[in-house]
Amino acid sequence: MNRITEKNSARTLANVAVFAFPPLLVLLYEYVRLGRIGNMTADGQLYLSIADNFLKTGHFIQTARWFKGLVVPPVVPAVLTLLRFLHFSEEMIIAFQALLFGLSCLLLFDTEYRLFGRCGLAPIVYTLAYLRCRLLLGNILVEHYYLFFLCLLIWILMKELPLSRKTVWMNLVGVMLFLSRPALIPVYLAILIWTIHYSCKEKHIVIGIFALFLPILCLSLNLAVNYRETGEIIPLESYSGTDFYVTACRNAPVTQNEGILFFDETRDRIFNDQEMTMSEKSAALNQLARSFIRHHPCEYLSKTFQRCYELFLKAYWFMTVIPIAGGLLLCQMKGMKTKRRLVHKVLLTLNLFLALMTSFGIPEVRYTAVIWPLAAVHTAAAGWFVFVRIRNLNTVT
User: Fold this and answer.
1) What angle do CA 370, 378, 191 make, to 5 degrees?
2) pTM passes above 0.90
3) 3-class DSSP state for residue 74?
4) Based on the domain organization, do 175 and 274 belong to the same domain?
């Protein structure tokens, strides 16, 4: 009995440490590097302006940038609107983001424990990725929010739950993930395909209807709000074409650390046209990008693979090479159920696909964050297999 109590006490202490220490470390790094905690970025000003304008005027619009009709995915502005309604200051929002980061580490910690019975490496790797990328908690960024949803989704997948309940929760988190970062649509589509397969096989028609109705409802509500504010039909956002052009045009760099600060006469001319709305600029630049790719496919693919190498193999090799090895070893782990093994294979494939998709996008290092949660778990898997190998060798000796 005493041994069980001691074990539970140790686990509780470990949970508290994992929840509290990583956010404190990242905040300390920010303070040492910048001399302060909190740095209002352009994205942060944009999201906060939407939240503050809604509370003041009842309109879900931004006034931080001069672009007419700029629309962003709704989850982060909605969360910030709720926090502002509760009278959260910017400092309190930073504390909330630190809370999300601590919860993300705790979810990875528990996932690792469920997989191996030993834990600690996954949150360490996840924190190192934050520090390496300089993704600071004092900056209001969408990454802090969708990374939490990714960690939560992985935890739900690995947790022992009734399959019907697990499927419902996966769909709820998947919708939040998609509505915070539309580029993560492959993850949500995988959830949706699985849900339809499960509902047909097990004859859970209600779950299938729920899975199909939920995104339709959310997108319809968002489209209605966007139409009310801009007079245009915009389901999610109004800037993806500009991002696409930035990655496809001839002058686009392979990688860059901050912003999209390179000269391109065509982009600058369209951007500075104050008569065009943001969605019209996006559509025009999207068409130009597609035209360039059609006429120069080899150049575009070459730059994409260079970007993939620079972002994922050169700068962040510890979040790609080691996780791939760990994921492959995890798929071959003895005693694992066939369905769980299939889940790990799908997750590994999906993470590699997300890395490739990111290489087609804007070449900023913070966009590599989409692979971090699962990469942290797979890195922990690699560490666990090395530990077992060394232990077995010592036992034989």
Assistant:
1) 55
2) yes
3) coil
4) no
Q: Considering only residues 106 and 244, tell me which one the structure prediction assigns the higher pLDDT.
A: 106
Helices and strands per DSSP (H, E), number in the chain: 16, 0
Same domain, 279 and 354: no
Shortest CA distance to 379 belongs to which of 157, 116, 159? 116
- Residue 394's contacts (CB-CB under 8 Å, 6 or more residues apart) are none
Contact 249/267 with Cβ under 8 angstroms? yes
| Nearest residue to 274 via CA among 70, 71, 73 | 70
Compute how many other C-beta atoms are within 10 angstroms of the C-beta atom of residue 385.
17
What is the residue range of 274's domain? 239-295
If asked whether residues 245 and 169 sit together in one domain, one would say no
Q: How many domains does the chain have?
A: 2
pLDDT at residue 11 in the model:
74
Q: Is 256 helix (H, G, I), strand (E, B) or coil?
A: strand
Residue 346 has pLDDT above 90, yes or no: no
| CA distance linking residue 268 with residue 275, whole number of Å | 14
Which range has highest mean pLDDT (62-66, 170-174, 227-231)?
170-174
Helix axes 90-116, 121-133, angle to 10 degrees: 140
In a domain, residue 7? The reply is: no
More confident residue, 204 or 117: 204
